[in-house]
Write a structure and sequence with these properties.
single chain; alpha+beta; Beta-Lactamase; 5 domains; nine-stranded mixed beta sheet; six-stranded antiparallel beta sheet
């Protein structure tokens, strides 16, 4: 129920007898208006000394007999006029009211005041004149009460000129007030503005209403008074012909001046009121047409000034909403969160007339607010405690804050201005809340160019902040969905089992590479029916699938032998599971084929990740060599940088050709140094050294392999450059330590691999190569085992995500590699000295040293990293217990 309905329900409404009350309410209004007219009529008669008391008394008695005759006609007309209203309320009481009946009642109510005037002027007025004349005739014929011709004219004049307009005006305003109360009940039932109103409602403007009212109040009494004076003068002097012409001229002139003055006043008053109304209506029509560029000019110091001002404020609010809506519409196609936040806050700054805007998000791990977007500071990240400054106050209280003078506010954090070299004058800051009401961060705009921020700015920024909140929620949801999708696709792609998903009719929806190789000779059978993958007579697989789809129960067929359509005989463990939607309805099936291989296939499989020599040793010594052991190993992880960007520019065939070429060269290097290819992880490679047969120089082999892989990539890039193709970049991480090595899995599905912290750290170190701009990074444990003549540079003391124990990492520098420090002992020495200054917290000297290194070796990323850290620590000193460890929160 809306507000209008709620207010209407509180008023006293008619009960079950509402329909007859509409008629009797109107009759009662008519009677009251008639009494007002009669009272005015009697007062005029008594005030005129040409009528005796006997005549007035007789006239009043006689009129009581005559009046009902013409009143009955008025009541009949009233009943016809209010019929649609009565029918609507009757249907409402019966529960059968609909929109059509409500619209008809609405039109009738809006027209009823004007129809009442028409009824008075066309029915009641003539009836009153006839009744007055009939009354005088009755008095003269039956009661011996004579009336002169002049008196008869005055009575008719009183009835028509005064009584009838007085009745019409009184009833117009009375009916208008009465209809206003009923309209509150009818309007909500119409479902908005009915289009029928423009055609069927008689719109009576304010201007004609004022003209008629003023003319009646001022002009008609003067005209009647002048006429009365002339007639009385004529009686005194013995006839109208004996009245001096000067009297006619004098009275006529005065009357004419009064008429001109009254009419002019009516026109001027009506014109002033009408012009204001016209201005407002004109602007409203423009607004309805979508033009919000205009506003009302205040031209008077009265109530219209407040009305114009309020209307302009409303237009300005609509204009702001349209601007925000247009910005939101423009950004609807933006899917990248950072770009979306930047455009949103740039638009917010433009609309609010602010110099800068920013978005600070909460980091629960550090209990800090950090700048996800800061206008003018896009390249830097600002962090501060979540309870510090005005932004911290807003975040803690979830209430907006408006500050007109930032430096006079004790909550203001001046350190941010010092860090950004920007002077803050005034601030408007608003909390960001998620859909669940959780605190996410804050948005703020800084330095309004003209004046200070106001409530309108608060409403605008609130609207933009709501968009920021929605964008953050959507981005989080998108990331979660994308992560799940990538996770599932990676599982499907890396699974060695053949996996096929089908619809209920057997049409293949998804099949992984293993499935294509095992069941379709490497072709892609998507959109085919799974029945086409099996030779005739292999109905058991299909029957099992159909039974699982029908019952929803999984089925496992161990060591099942079947023949594919290409004639291959396959022995596999076949698992069939039902696929269901969110409502539990079965929509298909998932079939998993675990290929069971003989010794030949085992040897072939091992040769994919072991060199030929090691395979022979394993086969001679038996599978015990691949049993689980806890031993010292060196692990290599390599990964192609920006592979997704490269893949976007290539076709699927080109991607496969590039990866096959890359993997072939890399695996050759691994096998050449007695390494074991553990697995391919997308475009990444994991290799192990020291298993299954440990040796003294396993760490040296791992480092030589890493350097050899880099040289092999150089050769590959040279060939690609000759063909006009872009170069491929790679990072390699090496770590040594104890790990569990062996066949891991179930009796039906095993994988020779290595697990443990040493493996995880190698992966983390490889991930840091891009950050430090290094080809090969090794850990302290690997560095201690290296015996060869290799150039090494100590880079950093780090703690990777998931580990509290810090590790020293080193960069392997190839003499023929791209490092800026290659074959430059002076540069390496200068870097080592600068690193000592950094670790002893001698920030100024460290900055000077690293600045020189950046000038001498502008491509050396580690020097740039330490220069930025030293400058940051010079501005904000680290904690007293700072141990020089740089901690990474991401993998």
């Amino acid at each position: 129920m809306n507000a209008t309905q709620s207010e209407a329900s509180k008023e006293q409404l008619p009960g079950e007898d509402y329909r007859p009350r509409v008629l009797w309410d109107m009759v009662w209004l008519y009677v009251k208006a008639s009494l007002v007219a009669v009272a005015a009529f009697i007062i005029l008669l008594l005030s005129d000394d040409q009528f005796t008391v006997q005549q007035v008394t007789a006239f009043m008695i006689a009129i009581c007999i005559v009046v009902p005759a013409y009143v009955f006609a008025d009541i009949l007309v009233i009943r016809i006029q209010v019929a649609p209203i009565a029918r609507y309320f009757e249907s409402k009481e019966n529960g059968t009211a609909d929109r059509d009946s409500a619209v008809k009642a609405l039109i009738c109510l809006l027209n009823l005041p004007w129809k009442s005037v028409i009824r008075i002027l066309t029915v009641h007025g003539p009836g009153a004149g006839i009744a007055a004349g009939a009354t005088i005739l009755i008095l003269r014929l039956f009661f011996d009460t004579p009336f002169t011709a002049i008196q008869t004219g005055f009575v008719l004049g009183f009835a028509i000129v005064f009584a009838t307009p007085a009745h019409a005006i009184f009833e117009f305003f009375s009916v208008s007030r009465y209809c206003e109360r009923l309209l509150r009940h009818v309007w909500p039932q119409c479902g908005g503005y009915p289009p029928e109103l423009k055609q069927e409602v008689v719109q009576l403007g304010l201007k004609p209403k004022l003209i008629v009212l003023i003319l009646f109040v001022s002009t008609l009494p003067i005209l009647f008074l002048a006429t009365s004076i002339i007639f009385k003068w004529g009686e005194e002097v013995g006839g109208m012909s004996k009245v001096p012409p000067e009297i006619y001229i004098s009275i006529g002139t005065i009357t004419l001046l009064c008429l001109i003055g009254g009419t002019s006043a009516a026109l001027v008053m009506a014109r002033e009121v009408g012009s204001h109304v016209t201005d407002i209506l004109g602007l409203m029509q423009n607004v309805e047409g979508g033009d919000l560029s205009q506003e009302l000019t205040i031209v008077s110091a009265d109530e219209y000034m407040d009305l114009y001002r309020g209307f302009n404020v409303m237009i300005e609010g609509l204009r702001s909403e349209i601007e925000i809506l247009e910005v939101t519409k423009e950004l609807s196609g933006e899917i990248h969160l950072d770009a979306l936040l930047g455009r949103l806050m740039q638009s917010a700054a433009d609309l609010l007339g602010a110099e800068r805007s920013s978005v600070f998000l909460y980091d629960p791990k550090t209990d800090e607010l950090w700048s996800r977007y800061a206008m003018g500071m896009e390249a830097e990240e600002i962090r501060f405690p979540a309870n510090l400054g005005i932004a911290g106050e807003v975040f803690q209280t979830s209430a907006p804050i408006q500050v007109n003078d930032a430096y006079s506010d004790p909550r203001f954090n001046e350190e941010v201005d010092k860090q950004t070299q920007f002077k803050t004058n005034n601030i408007l800051c608003i909390p960001i809340l998620s859909k669940s009401g959780a605190r996410v961060g804050v948005t703020q705009v800084i330095n309004k160019r003209e004046g200070s921020f106001n409530n309108r700015d608060l409403q605008r920024l609130t609207a933009f902040t709501a968009q920021v909140s929605v964008s953050l929620d959507n981005a989080q949801l998108f990331d979660e969905v994308l992560e799940i999708k990538n996770y599932n696709e990676n599982i499907l792609a890396s699974a060695s089992d053949a996996i096929v998903t089908v619809e209920t009719d057997g049409k293949i929806i998804k099949i992984n590479e293993s499935g294509k190789k095992l069941l379709a000779k490497g072709t892609d059978p998507v959109e085919q029916n799974i029945r086409e993958l099996f030779a005739d007579g292999q109905a058991l697989v299909i029957e099992t699938m159909e039974r699982v789809i029908r019952t929803g129960r999984s089925d496992i067929a161990p060591d099942f032998e079947f023949t594919t359509s290409s004639g291959d005989i396959v022995s596999a463990n076949v698992t069939t599971d039902a696929l269901a939607d969110a409502e539990g309805t079965v929509i298909g099936a998932l079939l998993s084929f675990e290929d069971l291989s003989d010794e030949k296939r085992l040897k072939s499989s091992m040769s994919r990740y072991l060199s030929a020599e090691i395979v022979d040793q394993v086969m001679e010594g038996g599978l015990d060599a691949l049993g689980g052991t806890d031993q010292e190993v060196s692990v290599i992880f390599s990964d192609i940088r920006s592979f997704s960007t490269i893949a976007e520019e290539l076709s699927a065939t080109e991607i496969v050709e590039m990866l096959n070429d890359f993997f072939t060269r890399m695996v050759d290097e691994i096998f050449a140094n007695n390494g074991v290819l553990d697995k391919f992880i997308g475009d990444a490679i994991m290799a192990i050294f020291g298993t299954p047969f440990p040796a003294q120089g396993d760490a040296d082999d791992a480092v030589r392999t890493a350097m050899g892989m880099c040289r092999a990539l150089d050769e590959m890039n040279a060939e690609r450059a000759a063909r006009g193709l872009p170069a491929i970049m790679m990072g390699v991480g090496v770590n040594s330590g104890r790990a569990v090595v062996g066949n891991i899995g179930s009796p039906k599905r095993m994988e020779y691999t290595v697990i443990g912290d040493a493996v995880n750290l190698a992966s983390r170190v490889e991930g840091l190569t891009k950050y430090y701009g290094a080809e090969v990074l090794v850990t302290e444990s690997t560095k201690q085992l290296i015996s060869g003549d290799i150039t090494i540079r100590e880079l950093d003391l780090i703690a990777v995500k998931g580990k509290d124990q810090p590790d020293v990492i080193y960069e392997i520098i190839r003499p023929d590699g791209p490092s800026a420090m290659a074959e430059n002992a002076n540069g390496l020495h200068s870097f080592a000295e600068a690193l000592k200054l950094y670790r002893t917290q001698n920030w100024a000297s460290a900055i000077s040293s690293f600045e020189k290194l950046c000038e001498q070796y502008p491509e050396d990323i580690p020097s740039r990293i330490y220069l930025d850290r030293s400058q940051a620590f010079l501005l904000n000193s680290p904690a007293e217990d700072w141990d020089g460890v740089w901690r990474f929160d991401t993998k």
